[in-house]
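Wed. Picked up where I left off yesterday with Iron complex transport system permease protein. The coffee machine is broken again, so keeping this brief.
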Amino acid sequence: MLKSNVTKLVGIFIGIILVLLLMWSSVIFGLTKITPQMVIDAFSNFNGSNEHIIIKDVRIPRALIAAAVGANLAIAGTIMQGLTNNPLASPSIFGVNAGASFFVVFGISTLGISSLATLSWFAFAGAALAAVLVYVLGSMGRDGMTPVKLTLAGAAMAALFSSFTQGILTMNERALDQVLFWLAGSVQGRDLQILISVLPYLIVGWIFATFIGKQMNILSMGEDVAKGLGQKTIIVKIFGAIIVVLLAGGSVAIAGPIGFIGIIIPHISRWLVGIDYKWVIPYSGLLGATLLLLADIGARYIIMPAEVPVGVMTALIGAPFFIYIARRGFDR
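Structure written out below (tokens, as returned):
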């Protein structure tokens, strides 16, 4: 849709403005009535009122977390689809989110861990283990790795880790109360310290993602062609896997397993800017942040005064899209 580099740059600029506007809207809209002047006063003339506390301790962290998590999951899904040549690849479908969730729940309920930094490492370890298992299982057999085998392996790993998680929670009802809302996927009530604790790892993932686009363009021409052009494909795949683990694992540690963003956004990005991953990756980050912010704002109004977990909202949006992609088959 966007052909020239100039229009793509304009699109990036518009995307940044849109994300900022939605973050501002996330601070303003909700059960508690907030005005723009209150937001300004909360920083320039803080008076300890309920509105000022909500703005600084709830709404602003929530907006920042929603933007970061949405961007992370979209970028991770884009890289997974590019590396595996699978239009259904995403952290949720391939069991990466489920693996990270299981390790976090295990750390909380069995080991009694409450340190955010430690739980982050558990999330990264679970995401890495799930990614390795899916890759190994999807590569077994005479035909090697295929999109269908990867999808089946991912679904199996997601079901396995989800079953482990449910088993732990069945045996520990106290832990169920602690993690049930988190398992639904939510940015509500998250402290900014959670984002800060994983931010160094997210920054590394973002930096790697910025520079991997060119290599993924070469890899997308086929592994044999890429090797013929001198590319060390295994190195590209390792770096891609590191990005996915850092971004998806960090997102699960912050907000729980939020699904479907990693499926929806890469396809929209490719529709907008084509198959050049130097553009697809940044567009995916901006669109992912946009989608999760919109979903989070909408989640506040469906059953007000209560809220729907944003993971439920993304599932409602993403499930029809997933069915559409699956029906199209694996040809892109």
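Quick read: The two ends are 16 Å apart (CA to CA).
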